[in-house]
Amino acid sequence: MSKSSYLGADTIALHSGYQPESDHGSRAVPIYQTTSYVFDSVDEASALFNVEQGGHIYSRITNPTVAVLEQRLAALEGGAGAICTASGMSALFVSFFSLCSAGDHIVSAAQIYGSTVTLLKHSLKRFNIDCTFVDINDQQALGAAIQDNTKLVFCESIGNPGLAVSNLPAIAKTAHAQGIPLVVDATFATPYLNNPIEHGADVVVHSVTKWIGGHGVAVGGVVIDGGNFDWLKSGRFPTLTQPYEPFHGMNFWEEFGPAALAMRIRCESMRDIGAAMTPHNAFLLLQGLETLNLRMQQHVSNAQAMVTWLQTQDAVAWVNHPDINAEAHTKALFPKGAGSMLTFGVKGGRDAGAAFINALQLSSNLANVGDSRTLVLHPGSTTHSRLSEHDLIAAGIGADLIRVSVGIETLKDIQADFSLGLRAAAKILAQQAEA
Amino acid sequence: MYIQVDNANTFIATGGKPFAAHLPTVVLLHGSGTDHRCWALQARWFAFHGYSVFAPDFPAHSLSEGEALTSIELMAAWLVRALDTTKVDKVHLVGHSQGFLVALEAAGLLGDRLKSVTALATASAIPVNPALVEMAQSNPKVAAEMMLQWGFGSPHQYGASSVPGMQPIGIGTRIMANNPLAIDLIACNAYEKGAEKARQLANIGCPSCVILAAQDRMTPKKEGFKLALDLNTAAQVIADSGHMLPMEAPKESLNLMKKFIQSLET
Questions:
Q1: What per-residue confidence (pLDDT) applies to A392?
Q2: Other CB atoms closer than 10 Å to residue B21's CB: what's the count?
Q3: Which residue among A19, A265, A379, B189 has the highest number of C-beta atoms inside a 10 angstrom radius?
């Protein structure tokens, strides 16, 4: 796979996209807290609006602080360009919006984040964009689901919350054989653990809110254009290969080639939808990104230790993490470990699980993942509560499932906290037995 | 637009507006292994400011079909045949790196159809390290990466981009890795008539403009100054840019290009 930077990942995370500016020499990336930018002249304004020169017009479209984060994430993932958005969901939406039109079709992994299911199954359907959900690692089913009007295959590199690892090279091969790009939500993996473009993905999306930020103080998303997909040869993408009337008939593929999708999102979605990341959020997310690689090492080592520890606890019914009995593709795609998410069930089902969560003192019961702090959630009651029973099963979500985003606290403190929860769960189990 | 040259489908970027042969025409010639997209922003400016743009992908490059041309002389002759299909009369030739060698060679073929020449990050001769040629033959992708690591100046090595959010190194490697880089490099290396052609242009009073990059390690600016001397013009140097000047400093290079070409059209 072609490089996007000659720097190492640790250096990219700290330096890429910004060198101290000449006016004041600010070592940190400044927050350009401005809505708009003064033009040198009417001619310059005209050139900026007509994409005759690069630069900033209005912070809904681009912003210098946001651009640093974009360029840093594009370099980390090995992409041709990146567009940051207000959230991970808006990053997904602008990706689908830029590739699909009314009458088109998407094939998606069944085991994905609940809000993404809602987007694909209900919201996009209102615009006559249909979706077929499949077991994404069943290549026969995937190939059979692709239709003449299919515009993309979508999966999460590690599914939320079922934690199934998508076999990216195999999925990409199946999709590419039919001229379809692969869009991957790599939020659970982060660029530290896996770079999907290296394994055949064409577009990578992250909720930057999660591990990339790590601090849990800013919401954001990013779309990274892998730059390797031949949109013209595919013959399925008029949004990229036909003249775009609002920009004087601009043909994104002809004019920008490997960055065609990124430029389309910039020119259309950011203008028309306006799901822009704020400069302050970009600044906060940059602070997190600087230490992503270091944090991920502790996230993964704590998660692996917690898996081992939970497997020895009497009150625990089952534990799931992609590294347990890992399949060959999981080992190949995640040599540093398959992330810091785990799921487990306590004996006693949903009520015992609720008791577990309610008894915790250190860990936080909330609807987020990837914070540096340990987070727990019962997806069946919250993030995935709008799914039908059938969809819950397809997504790998049982009634007793507890989702844990293992943080980077001292391991023994997480274990002590979980011991409180497990004792509470055991009491419920005992009560159930007495009843 | 697509035209037929030597029975091959050939892509000519026109900067986002239809080509109109009656307008002053700016011909933008790409360098080794690249394509019309290195001129993406400059092409749009000329096209929307009263010029026609003719920025070809040379045969077998990116959107153009056909066999790759093996010498600068063949590329120049091909360019003239391509221009002839459009009925365009007079042209300004602008070339980046190898593209300017083609411009020098094509100048003699165009005769009084030539209005001016503009050189960007180039020299009258471009010797190529044999190790790079060998790598381009055996592993074009690695060669493209080697070349761009050498080709981009330090700001871009640190992820700078004139277009917010884009990764010029990532874009460049993807374009180069799929184009006949080795054939281009061999053609560059073999071309030895550049200085002579430049002096001939100076002798006939052809207006010329030389734009160099301060951090150019592929065609060091001292070689660019020699070219300017042969063309009997002054070289202008853009700071903080390497050899990939049209992509690294599109605004700065456009400002110099348009100032020069506009001065000849008013």
A1: 75
A2: 12
A3: A265
Nearest by CB to residue A2, choosing from B17, B162, B177, is B177
Q: Which two tokens stand for residue A27?
A: 């070592």
Which residue ranges of chain A lie beneath pLDDT 50? 1
Chain B CA closest to residue A247: B16
Q: How far is CA A398 from CA A318, A390, B168, in A?
A: 11, 11, 46
A198/A277 same-domain check: yes
Partner A contacted by B243 (CB < 8 A): no
Give a yes or no: residue A25 inside a domain. Answer: yes
Q: What pLDDT is recorded for position B152?
A: 94
Measure the CA–CA gap between A3 and B17, rounded to whole angstroms. 33
- Residue with tokens 């040599």, as numbered in its chain: A335
Mutate to test the interface with A, among B166, B244, B254 (most CBs of A within 10 A): B166
Q: Which of A18, A113, A192, A244 is catalytic?
A: A113
Which of A18, A32, A151, A185 is catalytic? The answer is A185
In percent, the amount of chain B with pLDDT more than 70 equals: 100
CATH architecture of B2-265: 3-Layer(aba) Sandwich (3.40)
Rounded to whole angstroms, the Cα distance separating B238 from B97 reads: 15
DSSP-assigned letters across all residues of A127-150: GT-EEEEE-TT-HHHHHHH--TTE
- Look at residue A182 in the predicted model and tell me its pLDDT: 98
Out of A244, A272, A288, pick the residue that ends a domain.
Answer: A288
Cis peptide before B18 (omega within 30 of 0): no
Q: What is the DSSP letter of B166?
A: B
Evaluate whether residue A4 is within a structural domain: no
Does A302 contact chain B (CB < 8 Å)? no
B253 touches chain A (CB under 8 A): no
Q: Is A113 in the active site? A: yes
B155 touches chain A (CB under 8 A): yes
Tell me, what's the pLDDT at A3?
67
Q: Whole-angstrom Cα distance, residue A393 to residue A92?
A: 23
8-state DSSP, A400: T
Query: Does A60 qualify as catalytic in the annotation?
Result: yes
For residue B30, the chain A residues in CB contact (below 8 A) are: none
pLDDT given for residue A2 in this prediction = 55
pLDDT of residue A399: 80
